[in-house]
Design goal:
Chain lengths: 118, 240
């Protein structure tokens, strides 16, 4: 379980970094830079890795404390960033950065909750 | 800023409503999933709290729909739903503090949404402020009115908190006042910070003035002093 916790905390740290960088980008450029999307997809890759590892450990017989909540969080965590990026696909305005930032903060909170329900 | 035209069927132009819509979608999902799981697995533990959470989820879903419609020019649903949501948070938050027995387990709006970082209390205020900007007759004066209101509310919540502290620590007459005014002051404080930042941008205050507005929220009644000074020096004139 310790390894799973470590991945979750890395996700939390990286998600907070994405949110902070998004705030900086909104202040500095007033337009969403393409590399912010790349950071979002990096975050998504980490989340997908965490979800695969989580489902893998459950299949291997390790039961989390609250199974249904834990599975819900794992599924939600991988859906949020793609949905957010998809919703602002054609729009590079300053508010689209806010959408990415909210998505990053949300997955950070979900990752903390994943650790708590493990 | 680059704005790329999209077909009207998908959504409207870029704006603050995009951020509001994401937050409402997240809260609809989290409150809804939480309430459904709790009602399905342990409905008997705290039926009132879990049902209220489900109600909160429904309010967020309708709020999302309302904001989406308001961004396309039809503000009626949003102006109803945001007020319903604000009244819901304030009522459930106050009841959860006064009638602890009714809430063996927390609902989404318990303690004004403290489990969610008080975002549930700030969200309808932010939504209503955004809605005002959709009405051309009110545009411009909205932030100034909101700032003056929240500056007074901040001072009043300080007064309540200090009174509660007096009864708790000096008279030793119980902590009920602190329990109610503590979270309430937290909500008003957060609202003040958000609205002060918006007014800073809208009124084009300089950095020292903007920072003074934020620092004024820390000491008791500082916001009243700042509001009085800003009004006298012409920094709170309504206008576009």
């Amino acid at each position: 379980m310790a390894a799973l916790d470590q991945i979750s905390w890395i996700v939390v740290g990286y998600a907070v970094l994405v949110a902070l960088v998004a705030g900086l980008a909104a202040y500095r450029w007033r337009e969403r830079p393409p590399w912010l999307d790349s950071m979002g997809w990096m975050l998504e890759a980490l989340l997908a890795f965490r979800a695969v590892a989580g489902f893998g450990s459950m299949l291997a017989g390790q039961r989390p404390d609250e199974v249904s909540t834990h599975v819900g969080y794992l599924l939600a965590s991988v859906c949020i960033v793609p949905l957010a990026l998809r919703s602002v696909q054609d729009d590079r305005g300053v508010w689209s950065i806010g959408v990415v930032a909210i998505a990053a903060v949300t997955v950070a909170v979900i990752s903390v909750r994943i650790v708590m329900t493990l | 800023m680059t704005l790329i035209e999209r077909s009207p069927a998908t959504t409207s132009r870029s704006g603050p409503h995009q951020v509001l819509l994401v937050v409402y979608a997240v809260f609809t999902l989290s409150a809804g999933a939480r309430a459904i799981v709790q009602l399905a697995t342990k409905a008997g533990d705290a039926p009132v709290a879990y049902t209220l959470s489900l109600g909160a989820a429904a309010t967020y879903a309708l709020g999302w729909l309302g904001i989406r419609r308001a961004s396309l020019g039809r503000t009626r649903l949003a102006s109803w739903m945001l007020w319903v949501e604000l009244c819901g948070v304030v009522t459930v938050g106050t009841l959860s503090l006064l009638e602890r027995d009714w809430f063996p387990d927390a609902s989404v709006w318990s303690d004004y949404g403290i489990d969610y970082g008080l975002v549930p209390a700030v969200l309808p205020v932010a939504g209503l402020l955004w809605l005002r900007t959709r009405d051309p007759a009110r545009a411009g004066s909205g932030t100034v009115v909101a700032f003056r209101t929240v500056a007074v509310a901040e001072a009043l919540s300080w007064l309540g908190l200090l009174t509660g502290m007096f009864f708790k620590y000096v008279v030793d007459a119980g902590a009920a006042g602190v329990h109610v005014f503590g979270p309430l002051h937290g909500v008003v404080f957060l609202s003040y910070v958000v609205i002060a930042a918006l007014t800073w941008q809208a009124r084009r205050w300089s950095w020292p003035v903007g920072l003074a507005a934020l620092v004024a929220s820390v000491p008791p009644f500082g916001t009243l002093a700042f509001e009085e000074w800003a009004r006298r020096t012409g920094r709170l004139e309504p206008g576009p």
